[in-house]
Amino acid sequence: MKNMLKVLVIALTALAFSGASFAADTATKPTTKSEKPKAMSATGAVTAMDAKAGTLTVKTSDKDLDLTTGSKAKKALGKVKVGDTVKVSYTEKDGKMNASSIAVVKATAKGATGATGATGAKGATGATGATGATGAKGAK
Q1: Strands, E, within 51-95: which ranges?
Q2: Residue 34, pLDDT score
Q3: Residue 126 in contact with residue 114, Cβ under 8 Å?
Q4: Coil, helix or strand at residue 136
Q5: 3-class state of residue 104 by DSSP
Q6: Whole-angstrom Cα distance, residue 100 to residue 48?
Q7: pLDDT tens, 111-129?
Q8: Residues in the chain with pLDDT < 70?
Q9: Do 105 and 88 form a contact (C-beta atoms < 8 A)?
Q10: How many CB atoms lie within 10 A of CB 96?
């Protein structure tokens, strides 16, 4: 009877420690699932750039973005110069902003709006988008 009791205590002790070690293994394993960086975009003026290094600084309305370009965006740096207004798509990972695309934005004059089309003969529509012009009436 004493031997049976010893075997039972040893078995239960072994079972208890194996369960605790299993729980410890699952709790300490780091999750390898990493979050995908969120794609963002911004529009602003280029304040500095280095085409060889593939870096670009864009001043937006609320902050300065120091960007590193990827291979596609690095090709676009040849068309960009300091002072240009650009739209940049980028992701932020580990505190670094990586530009995936750069496009020069055509500047529009302040207060410029498209004009109303001129009415021509028999109701033909005139050109639209003339800066600051007012539509003129065509010949009847």
Answers
A1: 55-59, 64-69, 85-93
A2: 61
A3: no
A4: coil
A5: strand
A6: 18
A7: 444 444 444 445 444 444 4
A8: 15, 18-35, 107-140
A9: no
A10: 12
